[in-house]
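quick one, 637 residues, struct below
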Amino acid sequence: MSKKSEPAEAPLLLRKRLPWNKPLQAVLCVVYHYGLLLIACAVLTLCTLVLSYSNFTPKILKGFFEKPLILLVNYAIVCAIALLLFGVIGRAWIAFLLTAVLCMGVAIGNYYLIIIRNDPLQFEDLTCIREALAITDKQGYELKLSGRLIWCVAACIGMTGLLALLSRWQMRIHWLRLIPLALGILVFFQVKSRVEDPKLVNKTKYYKYINTWNSTEIYISRGILYSFTRTALSDPAKPEGYNEDEAAGLFKAYRDEPLPEDRKVDVFVIMRESYADLSDLESDPGAIDFSCYDLYHSLAAESLTGTLITNGFGGNTKNAERCFLTGDYTLKEWRKPVNSYIWYLRSQGYYAEGAHPFDGWFYNRRNINRYLGFQDYMFREDGFNDLVEDPEEVAEDDVLMQAIWDQYQTYLQENEGPYFNFSVTYEGHGPYHYKRNDYPTRFVKADPKTADGIAMNNYLSIVFHRDQALMELVEKFRTSDRPIVLLTFGDHKATLGSDINNYTTAAYRHFGMNLELTDAEGFLNYYSTEYLIWMNDAAKAQLGIPDLGSDGAAGPTISPCYLMNVLFDTLDWGEGPAYLQAMDETMETLPIFSTKGRYGILDDLHNAPTGEAAKAYRKAAVLCYYWRTNFFYNDVK
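---
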């Protein structure tokens, strides 16, 4: 018997060769094998939907069945991948196995990302896999297996085994492979053409079991595969109906205006990891001693302060960072120079640098900061390792603040021009121990030995330590003859609670703080941090501002994309760059421009802008996309 022959008694449906001399039987066999593959795809689709809701209410899964179109769209995506692979490979079980690896990879990634960061998986996140693995290992997150996850993986393995057993057909006739290829391509292009169709998006809208204040729940309410595919096959940042000529016409209404020479001062911006003033929130009386913020409050008394509504909670640091630097309200992973306020400042004679004590590859900062216009940037591998006793540890704020001052002094040794420094702290990065107190200070007075109490106390103790480091730098600024302005802000609130694997608000809730995403107050508390603008006496004298904080000066409540607008306004720097001028107009109507699905002003937030706000939103979105995709500073050296 040759190697290619089969036993004559082998059941027809289990044979590797089809009886093409008997057309009817052959057709039935083809239908059988395709049917098995499509059944397996249905099981795989169900598994991804079971994992889609992660740690949210299981009722979301019920919603998928109450809205069958959601099931159909997610199933179509799985089928498109499986059919394409079947056509290429010719073996159903291998095609399904690869499809399962891809689809379950997305579903499992989303499952854990929601647990760890309360953010769903988007296509752009695939560029940060290295960062995600590093931070998971560094911070001690424990990716625990759940029964649901085990059952879903087991189901996919089981279906692969069944296909290997029941579908042995090896599709070797080349023209026959065109059938699954054609079907797969047809389904793929149907999905691609319809994935952003407003009609389909609207028809798959089913919010019965979700909290519409939570953008993550809105995202997963359509199933992870559909929502993920939308981020992969479309450019969500590109406004619907965008026209390049229209955008260019709108942008021509503005032009870069020079900074007044007599108002150029040295500017330091420090974005502080997970820093927020919790004393601003209503809490149980006497439960917490907020004296840990005394140093910060003393600095705030001399400063302009305001509230920042960020786009993250417990993570996504790069969002606040890059929204501030570019004025953009939504971001992409850049691979070439991109417009930013750093480039504008360089065009006005500023030298721009900064420091961050973690690795330069994280969030691709080493490359992207260069694309943003920074002339130099100090990372962990550039010297911070030499400043700490244990190279495995990350430099804390006292080391970073001294490094910032040293950078400044090095610059002044050979330069006299204006200086800009943007630095990002690392100390304070979660999670926070909930089983042991790492600090001798005790700021939690009620239930201090509970897991939530210990986590809260550790966080507040870190706040106190970090403010001491900041004030040491401020005192150096205070005594400098150079005019210096300092802007600090928090990138997001910290996750606090007994479960370090869940971006929980448990500790906040324990002490009576409302961070629930069920109403406007909770939404604002959840995403809010503070910004502060301070200046030394030399800057006050040069700018003609005698005492910035004497009247309890309060800045507007804004999104990070407007923070540079507030700085320009505070320093009376004139109109500034063209894009900033456009954002000035938008800020008047939509000071809260959140990627978390809320727009408007503090007391009037909407899921989508309406009326005049809708016009302002449309114009801003068009100008923002034009600013993001057309680089204007090629002549800057």
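The radius of gyration is 28 Å.
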